[in-house]
Amino acid sequence: MRYFKPATTIDEQIARLRDRGMVCRDEELVKRWLVTVGYYRLSAYWLPYEVAPNGTQTRSKQFAPGTEFETIIDIYTFDRQLRLLVMEAIERVEIALRTSWTYHLAHASGSHAHMSAELFESSDDHKQYLQKLKESIDRSREVFIAHYTGRYADPSMPPLWAVTELMTFTELSKWIAFTKDRKIGSAIAKDVGLPTRETLSGAIQAISFVRNICAHHGRLWNRQLVKRIPNIKRFKADLFIELDGQLNRAGFAGGHFL
Q: What is d(CA 62, CA 73) in angstroms, rounded to the nearest whole number?
């Protein structure tokens, strides 16, 4: 089947929304959102407001009576605020993981443990990750990197606590995952309040998945997450209470989660 849908103008998009039953009270407001956010992006937020399709349809493309464009804006704004709150929380987790891994690995195996292939599960993976790290160092304009490379020739890379500052969350998670010494994984889990290194591994995967959504301004609201944090029931009540409090402080009404 060949795709044949043509591009539409803003006025055509507004007309389409109205034809399908969307209440658009303030046309200038609707136009501004369609210009700055886009019809396609917003469609993910109004999809749940469409009437259920019949047996032969995949979508009815008709809105439930009373569906207002302002409601879609409210949901979109809520989702944006949610992403910002989640990213703030992930920032703390990311820094804590980086600090804990650096501390335990450096104390166990020295300041340049990242350069020793025998400390990691796969020498091939180690070679690949170390090369990526070297490329990050070469590209870096950070003062602390310039200080090391300008003063020291051996070892060729800065110490562990410096190079981890250049790692992305995905890169950091891979380094943690293939660290051979299991005691280090257990120590990191303890530092961040998780029961086991296996739980830590699953949590890092889930957080990385959510982080990528947030970093690319994706939708968190009404989304089924593929990766989930193990043993989430142990922390669910505290998590929801804290997140609800954060949303209240951000200006939203209470009761979003509880």
A: 18
